[in-house]
């Protein structure tokens, strides 16, 4: 019921005529006496999708990326084989020994927390009007089309090919720049190895996606503790656009991936990166590797923070299945051709269409306008 929302916070301006424009869930989560979830946050979970967690058969593959750089030829081929299995069976894996200092990741999480703590007026300049604005903060994917409010706040900014970043709080942009650079180096090594794992030359993905001008985003998520987590959702099921996302969090669980029809908790190993395949690698491989479906749950114990870093093609690239995976008789192309920019715009504007996104049935029901 709308009347259960506190009307006195600066972010939740309610006028009798227009529905409230909610830009942040944080003040609501922190308001005293909030014991139940306001109905605008109620998300219907699919009760048939029970998570599983303890089955050793269902543990997410681990890839030691240092072996790709300095391992023997045998070790390198073994990791490429592991990648083929991980990408085709799972669409995701944990990355260890990647060389990004833990202190840098922690600094990013801390400075993002400070960003979230800024007064709402100070964040206002980043609310953005267009889905492609290079710096945007807010709450849902797109508050004008979302049917359910999400239990998370986010800040997204483009860090490559041009670096954009909020200039506050102090130190934010320096930390973000360093983390983005280090993260990109890891992505480049992994994408080369993924090219090989597909039986392609190692620079295939780089060339096909014009990666030198490829879009890199930092998508920071803030999930405050929630009074009724089972009735809310942090981020509903989706796959990421782009080629590969590398994600870290503050050690609080909440991320799940769908594997063989079941949800699996992703509990990151210490200082590991969680790598998952995006839609454009699915397209490039004509469906051999799948953009993995994932979601973020709310919890009632502690604030969860995650920093997801998607790496994509350049915005004007039309990604299409590599000819190696297409023959017009038994393996016709499964995807329509569209530039990366158009794809991202469609996605972020809520006009999700099953022609573009094959595994998107669950979220479509929420976001279709
Ligand atoms: C995302 C995402 C998951 C998480 O930002 O696209 O899926 O764990 N985040 O926050
Ligand atoms: Ni995601």
Automatic annotation (TrEMBL):
Residues 211-313 form the Fe2OG dioxygenase domain. The keyword Iron applies. SUPFAM superfamilies: Clavaminate synthase-like. InterPro entries: DIOX_N (IPR026992), IPNS-like_FE2OG_OXY (IPR044861), IPNS-like_sf (IPR027443), Oxoglu/Fe-dep_dioxygenase_dom (IPR005123), Plant_2OG-oxidoreductases (IPR050295). Belongs to the iron/ascorbate-dependent oxidoreductase family. PANTHER family: OXOGLUTARATE/IRON-DEPENDENT DIOXYGENASE. This is Fe2OG dioxygenase domain-containing protein. It comes from Castanea mollissima. The lineage of its organism: Eukaryota, Viridiplantae, Streptophyta, Embryophyta, Tracheophyta.
């Amino acid at each position: 019921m709308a009347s259960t929302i506190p009307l006195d916070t600066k972010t939740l301006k309610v006028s009798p005529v227009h529905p409230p424009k909610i830009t942040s869930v944080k003040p609501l989560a922190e308001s005293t006496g909030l014991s139940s979830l306001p109905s605008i946050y109620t998300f219907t979970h699919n009760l048939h999708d029970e998570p599983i967690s303890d089955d050793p058969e269902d543990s997410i593959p681990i890839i030691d990326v240092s072996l790709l750089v300095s391992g023997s030829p045998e070790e390198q081929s073994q990791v490429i084989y592991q990648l083929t299995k991980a990408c085709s069976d799972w669409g995701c894996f944990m990355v260890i020994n990647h060389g990004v200092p833990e202190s840098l990741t922690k600094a990013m999480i801390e400075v993002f927390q400070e960003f979230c703590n800024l007064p709402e007026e100070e964040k206002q300049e980043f609310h953005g009007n267009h889905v492609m604005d290079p710096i945007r903060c807010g709450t849902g994917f797109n508050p004008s089309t979302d049917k359910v409010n999400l239990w998370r706040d986010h800040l997204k900014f483009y860090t490559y090919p041009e670096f954009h970043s909020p200039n506050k709080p102090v130190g934010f942009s320096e930390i973000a720049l360093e983390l983005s650079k280090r993260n990109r180096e890891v992505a480049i090594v992994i994408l080369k190895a993924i090219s090989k794992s597909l039986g392609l030359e190692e620079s295939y993905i780089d060339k096909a996606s014009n990666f030198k001008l490829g879009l890199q985003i930092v998508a920071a998520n803030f999930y405050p503790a929630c009074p009724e987590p089972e009735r809310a959702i942090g981020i509903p099921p989706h796959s990421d656009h782009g080629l590969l996302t590398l994600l870290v969090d503050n050690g609080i669980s909440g991320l799940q991936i769908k594997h063989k029809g079941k949800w699996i908790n992703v509990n990151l190993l210490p200082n590991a990166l969680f790598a998952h395949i995006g839609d454009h690698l699915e397209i490039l491989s004509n469906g051999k590797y799948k953009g993995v479906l994932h979601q973020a749950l709310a919890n009632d114990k502690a604030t969860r923070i995650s920093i997801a870093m998607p790496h994509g093609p350049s915005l004007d690239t039309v990604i299409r299945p590599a000819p190696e995976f297409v023959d017009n008789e038994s393996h016709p192309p499964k995807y329509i051709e569209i530039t990366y920019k158009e794809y991202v715009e469609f996605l972020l504007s809520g006009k999700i269409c099953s022609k573009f996104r094959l595994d998107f049935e669950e979220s479509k029901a929420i976001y279709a306008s």
